[in-house]
Specification:
121 residues, mainly alpha
Length: 121
Amino acid sequence: MKIEADQKLIIMTLSALSVILAVESCYVVYMGQAVSDIMIMLWSAVFSLLMAFWTHLDARARDMYEPFEYAYLIFIFWPVILPYHLIKTRGYEGFLMYGGVVGLYLFPLFSALVVWIYFVQ
């Protein structure tokens, strides 16, 4: 189905961007500098936008009623609303998916933290 292919593309894009940002963050921290605030804000905005689009496609694929402002609320409050969506559509597997999404979001931060702890200090 077209919607499922688009959802997979969004997840693959988020994964690739997470890895790219992790490599960039590790390099910057290894060189003794801090990751720029603009890069962190850009990552947050792109991640939120893609998660809102993924959630919109997921609701359409499952024929779920979605209010007009649902995607906007996901964009603004995804850490709070996304678990509700995932648990409502997938049950307890939604907890695992939410953990994966949070892990994907925090991967660049934790990788830079590991580099700072083991190589810079």
